[in-house]
Amino acid sequence: MVASPLRYVMISKDILKKIQQIEIHTRRLVNEAFVGEYHSVFKGRGMEFEEVREYQPGDEIRTIDWNVTARMGRPFVKRYVEERELTVMLLVDVSASGNFGSVKQLKNEIAIEICALLAFSAIKNNDKVGMIMFTDKIEKFIPPKKGAKHVLRVIRELLYTEPKGKGTNISVALEYMNRISSRRAISFVVSDFIADDYTHALRIANKKHDVIAITIVDPREQELPNVGFIELRDAESGEILLIDTSNPSARKEFSVINGRQKQERSRLFRSMGVDEIVIGTGRHYVEPIVRFFRIREKRY
């Protein structure tokens, strides 16, 4: 599959307004809450030689360039700078289960804002940003580039693209990233992770890339309120299940099953060394992301 060409289409005023709102909101968050956080956590790929200059008191003796020193008759040292440029890949689940939210926002609305926040943080640090949108297939691939205009395109595609698939196949997205990414990338997988087994694909991807899972959850996917009979419809399969929420046993069973799935997912991530950020639709996403950055900075 190749990258989709930039389409020159008319975009509605509502979409343009939404893009502007997201841009203003996330740029403010980057400047106010993420100053230094992103840069300190995601280091450059190493140190790169920049120049040779004359030795100055306080310079490390280990940096002396003995060849130049012998030739010039006085000490010179090598100077290195951090090779800063990184590639950030956003793997975004745009399946039908994202069209759910029982509190303030839908899961897919939060996903878009998180992607915008990460993308603006990346370009502020002169890194490239690319995106893979997926359902049970690859919906769109945007190659990594720099610049604010590129980030606005990423936001536009997240708002404008209508997915063809409804299911979720995380393995497809991870395998696709491995094929198209020749260099190591910081890879954020933004999903509710309601998907079939993706263990093998995740293990391979995490060996090649720095994979970070951003799991978006909603309270009503964890516990049911006592409101009598309700129909639960699977947004991806269309299956409908009738549940009597006035029955304490039914509510408990629902909670236990979902709690077990959450534990299994977290255990899988830990076993592979994949960091996970859990974002709830009822709380703002900045706090858990900043907390993750600070914990990770201490660890590395």
Description of the molecule:
The chain has 300 residues and is an alpha/beta fold. The chain has two domains: 13-40 and 84-299, 3-Layer(aba) Sandwich (Rossmann fold), CATH 3.40.50.410; 45-83, no CATH class. It is built from nine helices and ten strands. It has a six-stranded mixed β-sheet with strand order 5-4-3-6-7-10, sandwiched between helices. Helix 7 (199-208) links the parallel strand 6 and strand 7.
Topology summary:
Elements: H1 13-33, H2 37-41, E1 46-54, H3 66-72, E2 76-83, E3 87-93, H4 107-124, E4 128-134, E5 138-145, H5 148-160, H6 170-180, E6 186-191, H7 199-208, E7 210-217, E8 229-233, E9 240-244, H8 248-272, E10 275-280, H9 286-299
Helix pairs in contact: 1-4, 1-5, 4-5, 6-7
Task: Please estimate the helix content.
Answer: 40-55%
CATH class of the largest domain: Alpha Beta
Strand content: 15-25%
Structural class: alpha/beta
Outline the low-pLDDT stretches: 1-11
CATH architecture tag of the largest domain: 3-Layer(aba) Sandwich
Looking at CATH, which topology of the largest domain would you report?
Rossmann fold
Strand order of the largest sheet: 5-4-3-6-7-10
Q: Describe the largest sheet.
A: 6 strands, mixed
Overall radius of gyration? 23 Å
CATH superfamily of the largest domain: von Willebrand factor, type A domain
Question: What global shape is seen?
Answer: elongated
